[in-house]
Amino acid sequence: MENKDLKIAQQAKMKDIGTIAKELGLQEEDIERYGNYKAKVRLEAQKRFQDKKEGKVVLVTAINPTPAGEGKSTTTVGLGQAFKKVGKNAIVALREPSFGPVMGVKGGAAGGGHAQVVPMEDLNLHFTGDIHAVTTATNAIAAMIDNHIHQGNKLNIDPRRITWKRALDMNDRALRQVTIGLGGVGNSLPREDGFNISVASEIMAVLCLARDIHDLKERIRRIVIGYTYDRKVVTVGDINAEGAVTLILRDAVKPNLVQTLENTPALVHGGPFANIAHGCNSIIATNMGRKLADYVITEAGFGADLGLEKFMNIKSRQAGFDPSAVVIVSTIRALKMHGGVKKDDLGEENVEALKKGIENLEKHLETIQEFNLPYTVAINHFVNDTEREISALTEWLEQNNHPYSISKVWAEGGDGAIDLANKVLDQIENNTKTFKRLYENDDSLEDKIKAIATRVYGAKDVNFAKKARNQLRRYKREGWDNLQVCMAKTQMSLTDDPKEYGRPKDFTITVRELSPSIGAGFIVALTGQMMTMPGLPKRPAAEDMDIDEDGNAKGLF
Questions:
Q1: Residue 500 predicted with pLDDT over 70
Q2: Domain identity same for 266 and 369
C-alpha cells in the first residue's frame, strides 16, 4: 500500500544538520551528531544564549479528534514553514512519536504531505533512543523496588501497595495486569504488577517538565513508588535510585534537532500522551527554542480540552512563560463526524451535519477564551470539501467574530499557510489581553478538577467515587493539595464517554481515582475507563509495514 507522506519524505532534500544548527546560531561543539540529519543539542549551549531575549510561543491545538483526522502536527509544521516564508525567525517544537500508536492506528507525529519533519523514518522508529531510555529508566526503578524487598525489605514496603509500574513503548493490552515473582524463593516475592506504555510513565512526564539535569534528578528523587505497611510514602530517593536513573537519562534529556521538508529547524523532544499524561514536548526544548528563535511554533496533544488545558495550567506554568497566541485546527470532515456522519459517508456533502458539528469547535473556542489569549481558527483543507460546506463554516466564523484562515499545508507546504501565519502575527502584535490560568496552585485539588470539568469540558458537575474522595483527604494530609491537576480522559469526547461526539450538555464527569505524580508536580485524575496501556486495533498499521531490498521503510504514516 503506497503512502504519499512517506514517499514525499523519502524525496526530501535535507541540509546537513550542522548547517541547520549554524543557522540557529549554534556552533559545532554545541551539538552531538546522530548521522548527517539529526543531532542532540548539548544543554551547555544554553549558557551562551542566557542573556538573549526569549521568543514568543504559539500553541497549535484542535477540536476533539475523530477517525477523520484533523492534521494538528501537519498544521504546526506547515505554520513553522510559513513563518520562515514571511521572513520570521521561527522554530518548530514537537513531541517524539511513540511506537504504540505508530504500530497501532494513530500513526506518527511528524506531520504529513509537504508539511513534515524529516528524517521521517527515523522519527517514527528509534530516532535517538530517548523513549528507549525512558523505558529502561522506568524498569530500573521497578527492578530496584523488587530487589529491595527480596534483600530484606529494610524500608518495610508493602508489596500490595506498590504503585510503580513497569513500562513498554508498545500497545500491548496483555501487559496491563501481570503477576511477577513466580517460580520459587529465588525469583523474589510473587505479587501483582502491570505495565504502562512508556509515554504514559512518570519518567516521561518528569523528563519533559525538568528545567535542567539537576532539576531532573530532584524530580526523580521525589517520585512516589508505593507505601509501607504503616501507610508511609516511599519514594525513588528512599531506594537510592535517583542517581542511576538520571544517568540512564543523561543523553535523553538533551533536545533533538532536525528539520522540516523546507529546512525550517525543528526541536523534537519528549512524548507524553495528552489523554493520560500532560501531552506536551519538553520544557528544555521549548525554552531552548525561545532563545534560538523569535517564534516557537509548538503543539499539544489531542483537543483543546486535553493538550491545551495542560499546556496552559501545567507546562507553561512550570516552564515560566506565557504563551502569545493559539491556533485551533479543524476540518470539515471532522466537524461532520461530530455532527453525526459516519466515516464511510464523509465524502458526501452534508451541510446540516457540518453545522451541528460546529458546536464542538464552538466549545473549544470558548475554552481558549477562558485563558484570555488571541487565537486563529485554521481550517485544514481537504480536496473533497465542497464550496457549500466551506461557506457554511466560514460564514459561521465571521458571524461570531472568530478569526480564521483556510490552510493547505499538506498540499502546498509553507505556501499553504502564509495567510494563517500573517493572521497569527497580526493577532500577536495587536493583542491587548492579559493571559490567565484556570486555577491557582493553592486552590484545593477538588476545586481544580471542578474548574477543568465545568469550564473546559462543559460538565454540569463532577462526581468523585469513594476511592477518589478518600484519596483527596489523604493527599491533603500529605501536602500535595497545592500541586497541579492532570486529567486522564478520553480524547474522543468532551465527556468521559468516547462515544459522545459533538457538544454534549448536562453531563457529569466521574473521577474514579487519583494517582500522585509528585516528581512531575501534578496529581493525575482518572476518569471513565482510561487505560494507561493501550491495545492494538483489529487491524494494526504494523500489518502494512515492511522494508524493501535497499533498506527503505514501507507502510509508515
A1: yes
A2: yes
pTM of the model: 0.95
Q: Say if residue 417 is in the same domain as residue 452.
A: no
Among the options 95, 254, 291, 315, which is catalytic?
Answer: 95
Tens digits of per-residue pLDDT, 211-257?
999 999 999 999 999 999 999 999 999 999 999 999 999 999 999 99
Residue 498 lies in a domain: yes
- State CA 451 to chain mean position distance: 21
The residue from 40, 56, 72, 333 that is catalytic is 72
Strands 115-118 vs 256-260: parallel, antiparallel or unpaired: antiparallel
**Neighbour count for residue 192 (Cβ, 10 Å):** 12
**Is the pLDDT confidence value at 402 over 80?**
yes
What CATH number did the domain enclosing 403 receive? 3.40.50.300
Q: Does residue 437 sit within a domain?
A: no
Residue ending a domain, among 403, 429, 455, is 429
Total number of domains in the chain: 3
Strand, coil or helix: what is 488? strand
Bridge partner list, 489: none
- 466 given a catalytic annotation: no
Predicted confidence at residue 437, as pLDDT, reads 97
Residue 464 a catalytic site member:
no
Q: In the annotation, is 74 catalytic?
A: yes
Among 56, 106, 356, 363, the active-site one is 106
- Which residues does 406 contact at the CB level (< 8 Å), separation at least 6? 379, 381, 390, 394, 419
Confidence of residue 2 (pLDDT cuts 50, 70, 90): low
pLDDT of residue 219: 98
Asked if residue 170 belongs to a domain, the reply is yes
Q: Domain limits at 264?
A: 4-128+252-429
